[in-house]
Amino acid sequence: AFCDWSSDVCSSDLLIATLRSNAARVVEAINALPGLSTTPVEATYLAWIDCRDWLAAKGIDNAARHFEQAGVGLSDGKDFGLPGFVRLNFGCPAARLEEGLARIRRAVTG
Fold this sequence. Notes:
The protein is of the alpha+beta class. Helices cover 45% and strands 15% of the residues. The chain has 4 helices and 5 strands. The strands form 2 sheets. The chain has a 3-stranded antiparallel beta sheet, with helices on one face. Strands 1-2 form a two-stranded antiparallel ribbon. Strand 1 and strand 2 form a beta hairpin. Helix 1 runs parallel beside helix 4. The longest helix is centred in the N-terminal third of the chain and has 20 residues.
């Protein structure tokens, strides 16, 4: 959560800390998966995931569609001039991020 509703504290510092933690978690989780990679972000809550090796190895033509079928919505990189990539928005509570990362993991390894 970005706010502590029990004390009415909403802080940009808490929001920034959550985003930094989420960003680090995305890098750790994605780079642990075979054929996927990402790099640390510097000033955003969007992570670009390179799926090209995984797509080629699995014979999958559209990563975004594959992940959508696994229950996680990612933006298709081709819409941004980056075919073979997907974009993950990690500006969310940590529990929601973990669920999304688990679904990505199952879609890649399952």
